[in-house]
Amino acid sequence: MKIFRILMILVMLFSLAACKKTNNTANKVEQKIEKKEPVAAVEKTENKDVVVHIESEEQYNQMLKENQFVVADFYADWCSPCKKLAPHVVSLANEFDGKVVFLKINVDNVRSIAAKLRIDSIPRVFFFKDGKDVEIVKGYMDLDEFRNKVNAMMK
């Protein structure tokens, strides 16, 4: 009986020691995650000036009137294909800087534009020349296909 009590005490001590070690590991993981967050924020702010984020229908209409070539990317934050397309939008906005204006319109924030254009799926990319849409692409495009569509719009 005495041996059984000693074994039970040892098992409890090992259990407590094991629990304490997992907390240290969890803290280390949390610290690593905290250190990486500011990098993502910097990447977002770097791209902010290249692509115009539309906040209202008036702003959208003004951009179409003032610019000869406009590419409008309709997206949502929760949409996986939209997230996959986003770096292509930024890349082409840099490549065609000064020639083509790239817009990003969040359909959850500016619903009036999405309703007028009858956007029922995203991503949806509109290519505008002189305020009129010359092509509409539903779904994801790879970078080369996207570039070809921008070049075709500019002809």
From TrEMBL:
Keywords: Signal. GO terms for cellular component: cytoplasm. One of its GO terms (molecular function) is protein-disulfide reductase activity. Residues 31-155 form the Thioredoxin domain. Residues 1-17 form the signal peptide. The keyword Signal applies. Gene3D superfamilies: Glutaredoxin. This is Thioredoxin domain-containing protein. The lineage of its organism: Bacteria, Candidatus Muiribacteriota, Candidatus Muiribacteriia, Candidatus Muiribacteriales, Candidatus Muiribacteriaceae.
